[in-house]
Write a structure and sequence with these properties.
The complex is a heterodimer of chains A (about 280) and B (about 375). Chain A is about 30% helix and about 15% strand. Chain A is α/β, with parallel strands linked by helices and about 280 residues long. Chain A has one domain: Thiamin diphosphate (ThDP)-binding fold, Pyr/PP domains (Rossmann fold, 3-Layer(aba) Sandwich), CATH 3.40.50. Chain A has an eight-stranded mixed sheet with strand order 2-1-3-4-6-5-8-7, with helices on both faces. In chain B, the strands form three sheets. In chain B, strands 2, 3, 4, 5, 6, 7, 8 and 14 form an eight-stranded mixed sheet that branches. Chain B has a five-stranded mixed sheet with strand order 11-13-12-15-16, with helices on both faces. The chains are: A alpha/beta (about 280), B alpha/beta (about 375).
């Protein structure tokens, strides 16, 4: 019996630009699974596919837009959110999802995140957090844990890291969650819930980056990091988000969950805010 | 009960408006449906006007957190099908250079108004200059051929804002209106024509259902039709070098083909973009080149020179980019002297000299005040001495 299994099509062929595959991501990277969750959530959202748009910034996660067979926008570094706001305001029928990395959304793009969340603009933001700048070869960024080694913190990072769910919640995001690509069912359900909710929604997805982060921080390969998620993750939707920072140490917990699901007036253009 | 009736989109009639307000009305007459901006002197009146005019018309005014976001937002809006605009001044213009480049690379129509004040840096926030004209030409990294108009009056703030929207829609790219503080803040009569007498250009759009072509496959005019988001085109739009499918291509041949086409599409249409006013240049021995508010003073200087028996003329490009060098060169046969007057330290003067292949007299000031006609006249007199 041959071990080969031949299939003519992939269940997500309708949502992926198969002519662009294989993708550029490294072995062990979490982005493939995360994109798959996203594609499934979009397919299940009930919104016609042609009304979904994907906007990304620059970096490894920024490349997601280019692999999804939707209207997709690969913009400038840090500016995915304001670009997405322009799209949404010009055509309110669109379901606009931003997917980008931690450096893109929270370093160079941090100010845009802050104001989009404050205004409760009707966009969905997914941040894939791999704790470093992967595309440029593993430098430290605003989510790099204190002490972590990167190519620009050879003696260990001396800066404190952002705690993204706490930040998003403090700014008034109406939906806030954190998952990993190990938790594909939870992530899919969370993405689906976010897609179906109006207002500024935020999901952080922790992702292995063995090349840029894992190997230099005693985590190892992608699979080792997935094992670490299995042993260290604690699902606690009621967690005190002030305590939900991540230090990626061998025995430190990673708090996951759908933390926030609230109602707040959604941004309307013209300065007025109302339902 | 009194019900407020919204004013119509086109305020046909005679008005007494400052240039910034005329610019806002020009944008509306051209079909602008979304403004994203950040307040900055001396452009703020444009945003203020549109913050009530656009919502009254069921359109969008959004004040962003900075000029980086403003520029990104109008690009996104344009892909959503809007005619989108922003307005700013030097410090904001600098920030907009980032996403102006994305607009060029992704062929995104929109309009950027720069009401110039004196720089570098914060400079003189409330006072005039024309020192951003070369930033419009070269301000973003990489090769590109920009389009920029320079109004000399509130009426031209109205007219050239429409021209900028039309050029942006026609050639699918961001277009600049390089105004200045004097023109923005001076108040004059502005005549707004009836809507049917205003030429409004709409972008070529990919038909719903597609046309069987690749998204970035240009027509003979080098402009590809634009697939609007939400219509099922599955378009990919990237600031990376991309092939005709819109897909990233790390390839020198593809890059050269793309970047050349983006420049060629402007060069190919330079004649239809060319707006130039010439006053008494036919028999002129000396020609003054000036644009924007400075052309008003230069025009006065030319009249004073004529009173003194000097055959002087004014060459006023309303289109700064692409620079109308062909038209200027036609004047070289007779005019032997050229004077360039501008409120910067000689930005267009170099461009004039480059195209004429001869030195010109520079009348310059770094900004903060209009160069008075007497100083231009003196340069004219010395040029023919």
């Amino acid at each position: 019996m041959s071990g080969e299994m031949m299939v003519k099509e992939h269940p997500l062929d309708g949502l992926l630009r198969a002519d662009r595959l294989p993708h550029i991501w490294c072995p062990g990277c979490g982005l493939g699974s995360i994109m798959s969750c996203m594609a499934n959530a979009i397919a299940d959202s009930g919104v016609p596919l042609q009304k979904h748009v994907i906007v990304s910034g620059i970096g490894c996660t920024g490349r997601v837009a280019g692999y999804m067979k939707l209207d997709s926008f690969h913009t400038t570094h840090g500016r995915a959110i304001p670009f997405a706001i322009g799209l949404k305001l010009s055509n309110p029928e669109l379901s606009v999802t931003v997917i980008s990395g931690d450096g893109d959304l929270f370093s160079i793009g941090g100010n845009h995140f802050l104001h989009a969340a404050r205004r409760n603009v009707d966009i969905n933001v997914v941040c894939v957090n791999n704790f470093n700048y992967g595309m440029t070869g593993g430098q430290f960024g605003p989510t790099t844990p204190t002490g972590a080694r990167t190519t620009t913190t050879p003696s260990g990072n001396t800066e404190p890291a952002l705690n993204l769910p706490y930040l998003a919640a403090s700014l008034g995001a109406v939906y806030v969650a954190r998952w990993t690509p190990l938790h594909v069912r939870q992530l899919h359900r969370s993405m689906l819930a976010a897609l179906r909710k109006p207002g500024f929604r935020f999901i952080e997805v922790i992702s292995p980056c063995p090349v840029g982060f894992g190997k230099s921080n005693e985590i190892g390969e992608g699979l080792d990091e997935m094992r670490m998620y299995r042993s260290n993750c604690i699902v606690d939707p009621d967690a005190d988000l002030r305590e939900a920072g991540i230090d990626m140490k061998r025995d430190s917990p990673i708090v996951l969950g759908n933390f926030m699901d609230i109602e707040r007036p959604v941004f309307r253009s013209g300065g007025a805010e109302g339902a | 009960m009194v019900t407020a009736v919204a004013e119509p989109r086109v305020l046909t009639g005679q008005h007494f408006l400052n240039g910034d307000l005329a610019c806002a009305e020009g944008a509306l007459a051209a079909g602008c449906s979304l403004f994203a901006g950040y307040p900055i002197t001396p452009s703020t009146e444009i945003a203020e006007r549109l913050s009530h005019r656009l919502p009254e018309l069921g359109c969008v005014y959004v004040q962003m957190e900075d000029e980086l976001a403003s520029m990104a937002a109008i690009l996104g809006a344009s892909w959503g099908g809007a005619k989108a605009m922003t307005a700013t001044s030097g410090p904001g213009f600098t920030l907009m250079m980032e996403n102006f480049g994305l607009g060029v690379m992704t062929e995104t129509p929109c309009v950027i108004v720069d009401v110039q004040r004196a720089g570098p840096s914060t400079g003189l926030p409330t006072l005039v200059s024309q020192a951003d004209v070369m930033q419009a030409k070269w301000g973003s990294h990489g090769d590109f051929e920009p389009i920029a108009f320079a109004p000399s009056s509130p009426q031209e703030m109205f007219d050239l804002t429409i021209a900028a929207f039309n050029a942006s829609e026609r050639l699918r790219m961001p277009v600049f209106v390089m105004a200045d503080e004097i023109v923005g803040h001076m108040t004059e009569r502005v005549i707004i024509p009836a809507p049917e007498d205003i030429t409004v250009v709409e972008r070529k759009r990919t038909p719903v259902g597609g046309d069987g072509r690749l998204h970035y496959e240009p027509d003979e005019d080098l402009v590809p039709p634009m697939p609007i988001a939400g219509e099922g085109h599955n378009v990919h739009v990237t600031g990376l070098t991309h092939d005709e499918r819109g897909y990233p291509a790390g390839d020198a041949t593809v890059h050269d083909r793309l970047v050349r086409r983006l420049s060629h599409k402007v060069q190919l249409h330079a004649d239809e973009l060319d707006l130039t006013e010439e006053i008494m240049t036919e028999d002129a021995d000396v020609i003054v080149v000036a644009y924007g508010a400075m052309a008003r003073s230069a025009s006065c200087a030319v009249a004073l020179a004529r009173e003194r028996g000097i055959r002087a003329g004014l060459f006023r490009p309303l289109t700064l980019w692409p620079f109308p060098y062909g038209r200027l060169r036609e004047r070289v046969n007779r005019a032997s002297r050229f004077v360039v007057a501008e409120m910067n330290l000689g930005q267009m003067a170099r461009e004039v000299e480059r195209h004429l292949r001869r030195p010109a007299t520079w009348v310059t000031h770094a900004g903060g005040r209009m160069i008075p006609p007497e100083e231009v006249l003196q340069a004219v007199q010395e040029a023919v001495r």
